[in-house]
Specification:
This protein is an alpha/beta fold. The chain has 2 domains: 103 residues, ATPase, nucleotide binding domain (Nucleotidyltransferase, domain 5, 2-Layer Sandwich), CATH 3.30.420; 146 residues, 2-Layer Sandwich (Nucleotidyltransferase, domain 5), CATH 3.30.420.40. 47% of the residues lie in helices and 22% in strands. The chain has 10 helices and 9 strands. The strands form 2 sheets. A 5-stranded mixed sheet has the order 3-2-1-4-5. A 4-stranded mixed sheet has the order 8-7-6-9, with helices on both faces.
Length: 262
Amino acid sequence: MPIEILVGVDAGATKTEAIAIGVDGTYIGSGRSGPSNPASVGVEISCINICESIVSSIRGRRAEEITLIGIGLAGWAGGVWDRDLISCISNRIGVSRDSISIAEDIDVAHYSAFLGGEGVVAILGTGSNFLGKAGGRVIRVGGLGHILGDEGSGWRIGLLGLQMVFKSIDGRIGPTTLVTKAYKHYRVDSHKELLRIIYSSKDIKSLIASFASEVFQAAKEGDKTAIEILRQEAREIALAYRAIVENIGSQMLAIVGSTYKM
């Protein structure tokens, strides 16, 4: 028997995840696909991956049964992609444009953490972003993308880790286990192969961010270079948090994202 379906989509820079439920709260399914930050992969790829995750989540049910699709989008950029994305998703899946809603991922994360209440949320995924709300005030910190920001993110930690790999190879710093971890992680035997893989990648953000897990592991094993990278990025996270707290007063903190879970 047909039921009305609600779909929530977490459209990130590394992966896209969707969960479908019935209007009565019954779980239907989930779906997962590739990156969908339009600022990184473009509107077309973003649309394709969002649609793939949605279709997987509804488990063979008809798209006509979907009542609402809510999307939390990384790289939202003030909604500049909304019109094109909504049109593309509507045409690909066969749902009305009015049933699709897009918001910035940080706003969705804040609501899910505090249900409209006061507090600070930090997204620490491939990129990073911070948002605080209290007493009618809204303060945003970061969210500047991988060129100007993304402190404390998988991208930044992975990038710093790889920079230390090449500095160690050059003799600019001492030995670090990050070198062997980089070779193993990217399945190469030399720094030249590693350079080729990095500079020929069509998804450089995901490729570099994936190395963050190796930096965390090296730190757990006592590698001083890796430990210093994490200390440096932890200080950046603390600076962002403090900047918000000093403006809104609330110290309630929620942290979400794949990097935080490492």
